Amino acid sequence: MNPARLVERFGDRASVSESYGDTTIDVAPADWIELLTFVRDDLGYEFFDWLTGVDEPPDAFQVVAHVYNPVASERLLLRTSVPRADPHLPTAVGVYRGANWHERETYEMFGVIFDGHPHLVPLLLPDGFEGHPLRKEFVLAARVAKPWPGAKEPGESGHGAPSRRKTLPPGVPADWGTPDG
Amino acid sequence: MSTSYDEATEGKVYSVNGADWDQVVAGARDTEEERLVVNMGPQHPSTHGVLRLVLTLDGETVTEARGVIGYLHTGIEKNMEYRTWTQGTTFVTRMDYLSPIFNETAYCLGVEKLLGITDRVPERAQAIRVMMMELNRIASHLVAMGTFGMELGATTPFLFGYRDRELVMDLFEYITGLRMNHAYIRPGGVSVDLPAGTVDKVGEFLKEMTKRIKDIRKLLDENPVYVRRTRDVAYLDLTGCMALGITGPILRAAGLPWDLRKSQPYCGYETYEFDVATERTCDVYGRYLVRMREMEESLKIIEQALDRIAGPLKGDPVMIEDKKIGWPAQLALGPDGFGNSPDHIAHIMGTSMEALIHHFKLVTEGFRVPAGQAYASIESPRGELGAHVVSDGGTRPYRVHFREPSFCNLQSFPAMAEGGQVADVIAAVASIDPVMGGVDR
Prior knowledge:
The structure holds two protein chains of two kinds. By secondary structure, chain A is an alpha/beta fold. Chain A contains four helices and seven strands, in the order H-E-E-H-E-E-E-E-H-E-H. In chain A, the strands form two sheets. Chain A has a five-stranded mixed sheet. Chain A has a two-stranded parallel ribbon with strand order 6-7. Chain A starts with a helix and ends in a 36-residue tail after the last helix. The mean pLDDT of chain A is 80. Chain B is mostly helical. Helix content of chain B is 48%, strand content 11%. Residues 1-6 of chain B have low confidence and may be disordered. The chains are: A alpha/beta, B mainly alpha. At the A-B interface, strand 3 of A face helix 1, helix 3, helix 10, strand 6 and strand 7 of B.
């Protein structure tokens, strides 16, 4: 990656950082499409790899994309941060066709809305599913609703002696209680 | 999936319930529209698990193809956020169930990057990982080739593929105790050293598999029916692959020698001698040839790895020496596939209180991983398999995202199938070789 050309084009609007052998470029959501187009056309990162989100409560969702330059065999992480209160980001499908399913997955898992996406509907989750499972406030509740047949711990999912300390399944808040009370 | 269902049923729908066929035909004659929407799956034997395809047909030609996925979504990425870093391996191994070793390795390489221990993982562990991955690649390609034959109407390749895959499964069972879902690769090394006799068994396997691959080539390479069903079918050129993010045999059949084992070596792949198979045909037959040659190259790599395991690396540790990270790796394999090391139990229960506390903390709480994000990717049988691992400094992953090659490659299915014949849709999907456990995660 040639940081000089990036600085020339974006100046202070992009910050470049290195961690664990990966180069990461951070920009504001408004510059997202400009950055993607720039790295594809001017820096040779033609190969779209993947796109996903990371929840950063209380303020933001990070959207991360990974692209390759197959000639130079280099890779880049591109990152932006959208506000949790109003998570909107322009779609990358116009720049990289392959972003289509990745954005749909990020949309259903985090609730980030990709403006201009050709078909922004849930991809993996069943019909009528409510909520965005990969948000941190989404409780992993399946074990509370349905006893686990493999329960071994005393007090877990209604097995064993009730006098023993009850253990909640991982990811369930302490005040939720177990199905048997 | 309501939206796709609504779209699939727009226009006039002909239902034969309670009506004579003559009436249905007469009704269809009244309209100008000659579009036919066909639903394939999700429980169709040739859609590789629970994949649903919605095809719009004009005669025999596919005008629009759409894949509907999500039937096997298990929330692995969410679940991992509530378990320790080590427990994560038991989840990821279940994603793409035909290449469990690759899932584990990609995840562990990501965790090792964050821990900063990539260079400290013992060489013997790396050689074992390489050997296991290449064995797994052969098993996975055999299934790809076998199901492919069956979907085109030939049962012999299917029987050959599954019969020969058993040889690999037997080895896996002998080494890890399980046929699949091994959780064998762990952050810092592998869960247990190779049992006695492994080197001989793998040596016999190499001889036998060389013959078996020749048999399959004799059966299919020049088979006129097979060649006609696959050549110039489901064409996807390099430009299409680039825009859609396609990797693996599909990309290599389009002529680009892109293989992460060469372009960004991991686990010491730079020290092994092998070639990257490529074809320039961009079609289903090319992808088949690439897979066959990859199996032959895998045999070469296994042979080299085996020489190192039996030779210079004999007796070396298979787990990182750092006691804060490395789980006790001197397990004795019990009849149930897992077991404890009598020496280790004697040590923690009989001689050292600190060791007992330490073992308890490591097993129940897990180790801490420094805050940050890292991406590690490997070349799985289906293409680039990567793990984007984010830590907040705790004992559990903050977020793990998998770049699943099946997921990315399946996106290319409309590009391959649209404009082609309906019979070639099956060949197109089979040549992508999607594993729905990986697609849906």
